[in-house]
Write a structure and sequence with these properties.
There is one protein chain. The protein is of the alpha/beta class. The chain folds into two domains: 123 residues, Aspartate Aminotransferase, domain 1 (Alpha-Beta Complex), CATH 3.90.1150; 204 residues, Type I PLP-dependent aspartate aminotransferase-like (Major domain) (Aspartate Aminotransferase, domain 2), CATH 3.40.640.10. The chain is built from twelve helices and twelve strands. Strand 9 and strand 10 form a beta hairpin. Bound molecules: 4'-deoxy-4'-aminopyridoxal-5'-phosphate. 4'-deoxy-4'-aminopyridoxal-5'-phosphate (PMP) binds next to helix 4.
């Protein structure tokens, strides 16, 4: 049969999202979602939403949402770009800041596995810089890598390791090229580089409503950068979809980000649970990388990563296992509620018996 697909559609290896199985109810600790519900203020905005307004396209300028983000981040609204999840924004960063077939984008060998997919889709050469033996990022090596720009997830995924703000500032200052910081998990670390965008015109900080704001199902993310960089993202967005953030989403996310009190409490609880789960897993023979995120990256002395994943799954607990070369011994385990974490620990006890 004749193949009607393009070369890209035939040959690209797409990103594989974490599984969302429906065969039974799992304790779902595989996609770094938040165990707590979104803010009551977000629910109020959702309930108060004027349904009949859906006959219109969403507000093009996203004033309400951008103003709320700008107020929360302490920047002006012209420094904000919003998208359909931070994945979409990270994707748009490639055509916005990297030339097809150019000097390329530099990033770590063990990091968010969407970066190489975007690079490949947009035909931007990937310049891979290996993490050190202990899985920390060698910023000097990244600075030395020949590339048009760099992408760093801070804290990194799936390792969870965070880089202190002072080191990030030195790195941004030393790189006279675009630096994209993916801060999807930053709320659990508390060292955001957002304020640096006022000083450095080469910095784009990308954040999401999916993790610390408990709104993964809404699909909203944002970038903070100098307006000259935001304009580039907007030009690229308008080549795909002028309305990536729907009206309901704009209203709900604007209300959510204003409720720092509620989310501060949820985040503190997750961080304290992360420390407890870490101690409890260590007592069961697991070793973990030091995590600054809402997950731990753990391996067991007596079992392979694939075995831990499969045996937890058999016991109704879903975690994420990556088959990559340096990381196949590990499982990435999202920090859930107190009860979910206890279910994980009970399943671990059972599988080790
Ligand atoms: N960056 C990193 C490092 C992530 O782990 C994720 C979640 N898979 C994202 C970005 C994307 O999140 P979202 O598209 O839900 O905003």
């Amino acid at each position: 049969m004749k193949n009607f697909l393009s070369k890209t559609a035939r040959e690209i290896s797409p990103y594989t999202a974490g599984e969302q199985p429906s065969d039974k109810k799992y304790v779902k600790l595989n996609t770094n979602e938040n165990p707590y519900p979104p803010s009551p203020k977000a629910l109020e905005a959702y309930r108060g939403f004027d349904f009949s307004s859906l006959k219109l396209y969403p507000p093009l300028q996203m004033r309400g949402l951008k103003d709320a983000i700008a107020a929360a981040e302490g920047v002006t609204s012209d420094c904000i770009f919003c998208g359909n999840g931070s994945d979409e924004i990270l994707a748009l960063c490639f055509p916005a800041f990297f030339d097809e077939g150019g000097k390329g984008a530099a990033f770590a060998d063990v990091t968010y596995s969407f970066y190489p997919v975007f690079a490949s889709f947009f035909k931007v050469p990937a310049r891979i810089v290996p993490l050190r033996e202990d899985f920390t990022l060698d910023l000097a090596a990244l600075t030395a890598a020949p590339a048009q720009g760099v992408i760093v997830a801070n804290p990194n995924a799936p390792t969870g390791i965070g880089i202190p703000l002072a080191e990030i500032e030195k790195f941004v200052a030393e790189n006279d090229r675009i630096v994209i910081l993916d801060e999807a998990y930053m709320a659990f670390y508390g060292q955001s580089a957002v304020q640096l965008i006022k000083k450095y015109k080469n910095l784009v900080v990308v954040k999401t409503f999916s993790k610390s704001y408990s709104l993964a199902g809404m699909r909203c993310g944002y970038a903070v950068a100098d307006p000259s960089l935001i304009a580039g993202l907007e030009r690229c967005r308008d080549c795909f979809n002028s309305y990536p953030v729907d009206s309901v989403c704009q209203a709900v996310c604007a209300a959510a980000i204003a409720d720092s009190k509620y989310y501060g409490k949820c985040t503190a609880r997750i961080v304290s649970e992360r420390e407890r789960v870490g101690r409890e897993l260590a007592a069961r023979g697991f070793t973990m990388l030091p995590s600054s995120a809402n997950f731990v990256f753990a391996k067991h002395e007596a079992l392979s990563g694939g075995e831990v994943y499969a045996r937890l799954r058999d016991r109704g607990v879903l975690v994420r296992h990556f088959k990559g070369e340096r990381i196949s011994d590990f499982c990435r385990i999202t920090i859930g509620s107190f009860e979910e974490n206890n279910a994980l620990l009970a399943a671990a006890d059972d599988l080790l018996r």
